[in-house]
Amino acid sequence: MSNEDAFVLDNDLGLYVVADGMGGHAAGEVASREAVETVLGMVRRGYAAVERFEAEGPTPETVRAVQRLLESAVQAATYMVFAIAENDPDQKGMGTTVSALLVMRTHAVVAQVGDSRVYLVREGAVYQLTEDHTLVAWQVKQGIISEAEAELSPHKNVITRAVGSRDYVQVDTQTVEVGPGDRFLVCSDGLHGYLQEDEIVPLLTLGPDVATSKLIDIANQRGGRDNITAVVVELS
To answer: pTM of the entire structure?
Structure first.
């Protein structure tokens, strides 16, 4: 099985990205790799927005600017992946999820497309910061099926938004306050699909390195049929 996940872990920028690619002929691998590299490059080039946020604090303008930076980075990835697929028949229809976390001193920005996830662990509680862009998540939100029915649905893997399947995608962004002791988990569905939410808190308290290896071990022990990627971030 080829690994169709890709990730960025850049402590200098405070940027953490997980992408889970899809498409035949290893196209998913190409899509996820191109996506994370594009997001990284765009954030690096537009980092002045982060520096301004750090200097001036959270005003409506600075918050909008950092959210726009991450959103534009994901849009650039969308255009890049779509353009590559248009030029290569073998890679037609490829795409990827992207979950991105940009951590600053007092705040973090999250950008989301697809069904990888970003979790925040704070004071013994876990919060899923992202919304899955899947058919099943939409059905639950609309009240068409229950959470229990969603678990058994044959459509669990049907994604309604992906980076690269078209030349534009709607990106969800949000800004959250952060502080010392906060921990984040950015992961692909190859991990969260095998994990109960209440297991995340005790695991993340073990520190990033131990937590990451234990999370991946758990997913593998429980079936591990998909690529598994976990990035754990701890704020001091």
So the answer is: 0.94
